[in-house]
From TrEMBL:
Domain Response regulatory: 4-117
InterPro entries linked: Bact_response_regulator (IPR050595), CheY-like_superfamily (IPR011006), Sig_transdc_resp-reg_receiver (IPR001789)
Organism of derivation: Pedobacter cryoconitis
Residues forming coiled coils: none
Taxonomic lineage from the root: Bacteria, Pseudomonadati, Bacteroidota, Sphingobacteriia, Sphingobacteriales
Keywords of this entry: Phosphoprotein
Positions carrying 4-aspartylphosphate: D53
GO biological process: phosphorelay signal transduction system
Origin: domain of life: Bacteria
UniProt name for this protein: Two-component system phosphate regulon response regulator PhoB/two-component system alkaline phosphatase synthesis response regulator PhoP
Length: 120
């Protein structure tokens, strides 16, 4: 059975690129460009990992990440944050399992995903 990755990315071009790369790697992918109904997607899709676009490591910017990690149904799912913010590493201290800075190297993103899927 293929591993499932839920991707929330607000930039549609990046979302499409991630979809192409992950699909070619054999992952089942669920794509979201909005936070709306993310918990319905988590419940229905049951992802093995979540890629989450976080614009800023502020209280507001990390609220969804913290909610995902606090919810009983999703706390066990690794969250990899994708961010352009220069201090995005702070998100790892707040809620994320890992942070990948944008623009990202595709091979680095894939190796990070693989690492967390093996660890899970």
């Amino acid at each position: 059975m293929n591993k499932k990755i839920l991707v929330l990315e607000k930039n549609r071009d990046i979302l499409e690129l991630i979809n192409i790369v992950l699909t070619e790697e054999g992952y089942d992918v669920d794509l979201l460009s909005s936070e709306k109904e993310i918990f319905d997607h988590i419940r229905d899709f049951q992802p093995d990992i979540i890629l989450l676009d976080v614009i800023s490591p502020t209280e507001e910017g990390t609220a969804l990440c913290k909610t995902i990690k606090a919810a009983e149904a999703s706390s066990h799912i690794p969250v990899i944050v994708l961010s352009t913010h220069p201090k995005s590493e702070v998100v790892k201290e707040i809620c994320a399992d890992e942070v990948v800075a944008k623009p990202f190297d595709i091979s680095f993103l894939l190796s990070t995903i693989e690492h967390y899927l093996i660890s899970a």
